[in-house]
Write a structure and sequence with these properties.
7-stranded mixed sheet, 17 strands, 2 domains, binds NADP nicotinamide-adenine-dinucleotide phosphate, 29% helix, Quinone Oxidoreductase, Chain A, domain 1, 349 residues
């Protein structure tokens, strides 16, 4: 491979060294080696040609997810071949279409689950991968709902069994995945207890319909969740893990279900005796792996989520924004638990 060329998930990319001024160029953030988020580089590369069936979008906002940090650091279960370009979900404006394109036109504001390369100012995609965005979503909301809401949707509709009137404890309820879990569970008629470490995060969960909150910095989660649920806690949605996990498991009522979603606080060891006792169930939730094997089904649930959003039944949070060139700072702030809700990167190059 030439030093100025790279294959990124099968897409040949020519970096800017010595490129002719007539060639269309775009800017993007590049990971050259898995490791520190501080090593992200802004590079210029040739914009891919807008071939048959394709559209070019100017990216207006790109969602940032905890998974992006894990992937860049090489700590995620999927290790992307380097160099790679992070950023999986964007909102953009269509600026060019191939002559045979029928589903999009110049000027459309669209959502695109790009998979990779969202930390860029432009993207070229097949028209089947851009979706008109509901008018009631801002660019930031549109760029940050997908991973969080589809994980919750998959968990509640494909993995656990929820019944209207159930009571659910959501851990990390002021973070991306947790807050989407609160919103979706409430929309399904579930009573939600939201656990979070800061007033701002707890308030966000209350705004999304939680009926009670737990301050994880001062309260005993097991005791308080049992009290708030009148000893009838049916479900736990856990994107945090760590020390909170066992407390949450032990708060469950007989027959309760525990959804294992993420490990930002560390991978917990759940005591098997507390799973056996009173017939509890622990279910794994791996939306990413399921989505990779069930892309048609995933497209359907994406459209269902978008439909519920456009009807005002689901309410993605307005994200905190950072200039895209400050992606490393945004990733640090997310890892340091400073973000309430979601983060969007806005191209500034
Ligand atoms: N299973 C799946 O299919 C799936 C899909 C997407 C994401 N995930 C996983 O879900 C997890 C959460 O992702 P997210 O996007 O919601 O992240 P996020 O927005 O950063 O929220 C995570 C929350 O976890 C809490 N937390 C507790 N200990 C923490 C620590 N040591 N470091 C950072 N946060 C800590 C924080 O809330 P408090 O400050 O209130 O404690 C934070 O708000 C990640 O592990 C991600 O990989 C799983």
């Amino acid at each position: 491979m030439c030093s100025d060329d790279a294959y990124m998930y099968g897409t040949r990319v020519t970096l800017a060294t010595g490129a002719s001024s007539t060639v269309a160029m775009m800017k993007t953030l590049l990971v050259e080696a898995l490791g520190s988020v501080d090593d992200l580089k802004i590079v210029e590369m040739e914009t891919p040609k807008v071939g048959a069936g394709h559209v070019k979008i100017e990216i207006l906002a790109c969602g940032l997810n905890y998974v992006d940090a894990l992937m860049i650091e090489g700590k995620y279960q999927i290790k992307p071949p380097v160099p790679y370009r992070p950023g999986s979900e964007v909102v953009g404006r269509v600026v060019e279409v191939a002559s045979d394109v029928t589903r999009a036109k110049v000027g459309d504001r669209v959502f695109a689950p790009v998979g990779i390369g969202g930390f860029s100012n432009e993207a070229v995609l097949h028209e089947s991968r851009v979706i008109p965005i509901p008018a009631n979503l801002t660019d930031g909301q549109g760029a940050t709902f997908m991973q969080s809401y589809l994980t919750a949707w998959f968990a509640f509709n494909f993995r656990a069994s929820l019944v209207k009137g159930d009571t659910m404890l959501v851990l990390g309820a002021g973070g991306g995945v947790g807050l989407a879990g609160v919103d979706l569970a409430v929309s399904m008629g579930v009573r939600v207890i939201a656990a979070a470490s800061s007033e701002e995060k707890r308030q966000l969960a209350l705004n999304h319909g939680a009926f009670a909150v737990i301050d994880t910095t001062t309260e005993d989660v097991k005791v308080r969740a049992r009290e708030l649920a009148d000893n009838q806690l049916d479900l736990v949605y856990d994107p945090v893990g760590g020390e909170l996990a066992e407390q949450a498991l032990r708060a469950l009522a007989p027959g309760g279900q525990y959804m294992v979603v993420g490990f930002v606080g560390g991978i917990p060891r759940l005591p098997a005796n507390h799973i056996l006792l009173t017939n509890r169930t622990v279910v794994g939730v791996d939306w990413g792996a399921w989505m990779a094997r069930n892309q048609l089904e995933n497209s359907k649930i994406l459209m269902e989520v978008l439909d519920e959003i456009s009807q005002g039944k689901l309410h993605p949070v307005e994200p905190v924004t950072y200039p895209m060139s400050s992606a490393a700072q945004a990733l640090h702030d997310m890892q340091d638990r400073k973000i309430a809700g979601k983060v969007a990167l806005i191209p500034d190059f």
